Amino acid sequence: MSTNEFPMIPSIYGDERPRKTITELKCLHCNNIQVRDFKGGDFIFKKINDEKCNKCSRFDLIINSIHDIIDPTKSKQR
What's the structural domain count of the chain? Predict the structure, then answer.
């Protein structure tokens, strides 16, 4: 297993709903928050040099947080 791959952690919620991991980016210039899918190698406070802010177009982003959410595109219909 490479350092960029982690095993899936079992759900602590006791359900089988599909989940996905998202990364929240914050612009250090204008404080804009934007969200994207998690990429291997992401970690909190990492400076992102190859993506620009959606608001001010600067390449001044850091990873603010990483979240595991229920994937709305794959949720089961009840």
Answer: 1
- Position with higher pLDDT, 45 vs 8: 45
Q: Residue 14 region, left (φ>0) first, then alpha (ψ -120 to 50), else beta?
A: left
For residue 48, is pLDDT > 90? yes
Yes or no: say if 75 and 18 are a contact pair by the CB < 8 Å rule.
yes
Is position 75 within any domain? no
Task: Write down the pTM of the prediction.
Answer: 0.72
Indicate which CATH number applies to the domain containing 55. 2.20.28
Q: Which residues pair with 70 in a beta bridge?
A: 19
- What pLDDT was estimated at residue 72? 74
In a domain, 57, yes or no: yes
DSSP state letters, 24-71 = EEEETTT--EEEEE--TT--TT-EESS---TTT--S-EEEEEEEEEE-
